[in-house]
Amino acid sequence: MPFHYPNGKLYLNDAKDNPKKQPKNQEVRFDNRGMSLEEEINESNRYYLAHDIAVVYKKPLPIQIVKVDYPKRSAAVIKEAYFRKPSTTDYNGVYKGYYLDFEAKETKNKASFPLKNFHQHQIEHMRHCLRQDGICFVIIRFVSLKRLFVYPATPLIRAWDTQETVQGRKSIPLKTIETEGFEIHYALNPLIPYLSAVEQLIHYLESRKGVHYGN
Amino acid sequence: MPFHYPNGKLYLNDAKDNPKKQPKNQEVRFDNRGMSLEEEINESNRYYLAHDIAVVYKKPLPIQIVKVDYPKRSAAVIKEAYFRKPSTTDYNGVYKGYYLDFEAKETKNKASFPLKNFHQHQIEHMRHCLRQDGICFVIIRFVSLKRLFVYPATPLIRAWDTQETVQGRKSIPLKTIETEGFEIHYALNPLIPYLSAVEQLIHYLESRKGVHYGN
């Protein structure tokens, strides 16, 4: 039996009862499943965890809590709090004994990735983790190109450090990312199979162990 | 010039102006520097980071944000939020290429460490990390004994899994922790040099690689 609102309008409790909404949802899903890059990575991480492939989490936002109410018989309510600047990157975890540490960033640009997407503290954190032999990178999405890359921290930090110099640039050209990065192709399970690109990065890093420049 | 409150009481803006408070503070500092175990570990982590020894952070508390105000010309204020249950342990990071993952717990008991200090989700998280060859443990402080240990996740999980059985116990005896764990001795820099105990744990784990039971 169909239900109606007091104004007589039909109540639709399911998308399948609503022919207008359905095609639009499907269309969005075809593009990027209607999810943000963060949600897509979180979903991929849940897949990796459930299949014992890796343990990776997004870190919670750091919050400065000022005031908390403890109402009787219900959960504590934070009534005043402020966002704090994170000291690290957003994601970390463990994969086959390797420490993984990364950021996820998107751009609407088509030819390059602007460095202004990063903050100094993220670069410094990656620098520290690299010194401890962590596997550090950024997952970059070119939104309009629908292309995704794992781009290693080492060339990213090099670009960051030289951006103010004469030869420096404020962005990393797509061509450079294609050469130095590892492309990820959207899949079903997981949605963003970034670990296959990370696996290539690990092989690359292992193959260069003991190779030093300048000394 | 001394300041006074409207009621005539002297305003003391510094502990050194307040002879009553000073000795008490010093007394607390002698025991455990007046810091919680968490603060002591955070301070040790800052030392390790500053000296490029390891990169370890405590994860922020996960918060469900419901309402945020954006006042003009000042920082966003969170006006309603709730604490969420964490899915992981409190600390993780990287040390010489090893993924570290741990909890910090204290007990006032003198003879054993009660398992009720742990939650199921923390045990499950450690189980997942161990399968990825992470270095997982708990830093246990026996408050009244002033003793600290790094206790590995493997015997902890074994004790957790068998606590309901006939041979099982609801706590881990201190003697067992002395045998299977690695004692940490308070120092100056860092306050809790837990990485030397972790180093012993890593050597122990490496020495047993390839040793399997039951097959």
Structural summary, described in words:
The structure is a homodimer of 215-residue chains. Chain A has a single domain (31-207), classed as Trna Endonuclease, Chain: A, domain 1 (3-Layer(aba) Sandwich), CATH 3.40.1350.10. Chain A is built from six helices and twelve strands. Chain A has helices spanning 21-32, 37-50, 120-131, 153-162, 174-180, 194-207; strands at residues 3-4, 10-11, 55-58, 63-69, 77-83, 91-95, 98-107, 112-114, 135-142, 147-152, 171-173, 182-184. Chain A has a six-stranded mixed beta sheet with strand order 3-6-7-9-10-12. In chain A, strands 1-2 form a two-stranded antiparallel sheet. A two-stranded antiparallel sheet of chain A has the order 4-5. In chain A, helix 3 packs across helix 4. The relative contact order of chain A is 0.12. The interface between A and B is large, with 37 and 37 residues. Chains A, B: InterPro entries: Resolv_RecU, Restrct_endonuc-II-like, tRNA_endonuc-like_dom_sf. Chains A, B: It catalyses: Endonucleolytic cleavage at a junction such as a reciprocal single-stranded crossover between two homologous DNA duplexes (Holliday junction).
